[in-house]
């Protein structure tokens, strides 16, 4: 299961999706539940316009697969997958970027399954359009 948190800050809004329900283990393919959630997020973001930055994060457990030789590769592939799904729902005036952060910015200790699940997350940062645009 995952959880969703929205933070509205003065210069941006952050949608944080975290937990084990977003992707399969070692996979960059969003779960059906996460895709449905991204549909709603994309609709809300489309109304705002502006620039979107998608950041993928992992826990600190090493991954070494043919497709993902490191956590950075996995986190970037997950960010790219989410960015692609969101881009399909955004107007052409919006720009979207994706970054892989791997395990570099943990939000919880990686010493328990719960902490690692919190660190496996996607942040969708929405910067509003500049005034006059």
Structural key phrases:
133 residues, alpha+beta, 60s Ribosomal Protein L30, Chain: A, five-stranded mixed β-sheet, 3 helices, 31% helix, 27% strand, globular
Task: Walk me through the structure.
This protein is an alpha+beta fold. The protein has one domain (2-127): 2-Layer Sandwich (60s Ribosomal Protein L30, Chain: A), CATH 3.30.1330. The chain is 31% helix and 27% strand. The chain has helices spanning 32-48, 71-87, 113-119, and strands at residues 2-8, 13-19, 51-57, 95-102, 121-127. It has a five-stranded mixed β-sheet with strand order 1-2-5-3-4, with helices on both faces. Helix 1 (32-48) crosses helix 2. It is globular, with a radius of gyration of 15 Å. The N and C termini lie far apart (39 Å). The relative contact order is 0.25.
Q: In brief, what are we looking at here?
A:
With 133 residues, the chain is of the alpha+beta class.
Number of strands: 5
| Poorly predicted runs of 5 or more residues | none
Summed up, the domain count is: 1
CATH class: Alpha Beta
Q: Secondary-structure element sequence? A: EEHEHEHE
Briefly note the structural class of the backbone.
Answer: alpha+beta
Assigned CATH superfamily: OmpA-like domain
Q: Would you tell me the overall average pLDDT?
A: 91
> How can the largest sheet be summarized?
5 strands, mixed
Summarize the amount of helix as a percent range: 25-40%
Overall outline:
globular
Radius of gyration, taken over Cα atoms and rounded to an integer in Å: 15 Å
Q: In DSSP terms, counting alpha (H) and pi (I) runs of 4 or more, how many helices?
A: 3
Provide the CATH architecture: 2-Layer Sandwich
Distance between the termini: 39 Å
């Amino acid at each position: 299961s995952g959880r969703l948190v929205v933070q509205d800050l003065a210069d941006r809004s952050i949608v944080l999706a975290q937990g084990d329900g977003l992707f399969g283990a070692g996979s960059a393919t969003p779960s059906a539940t996460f895709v449905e959630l991204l549909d709603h997020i994309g609709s809300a973001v489309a109304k705002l316009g502006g620039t979107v930055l998608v950041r993928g994060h992992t826990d600190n457990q090493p991954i070494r697969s043919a497709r993902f030789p490191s956590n950075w590769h996995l986190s970037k592939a997950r960010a790219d997958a989410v960015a692609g799904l969101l881009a399909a729902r955004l107007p052409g005036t919006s720009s979207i970027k994706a970054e892989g952060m791997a395990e570099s910015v943990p939000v919880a200790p990686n010493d328990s399954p719960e902490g690692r699940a919190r660190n496996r997350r996607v942040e969708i940062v929405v910067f509003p359009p500049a005034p006059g645009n």
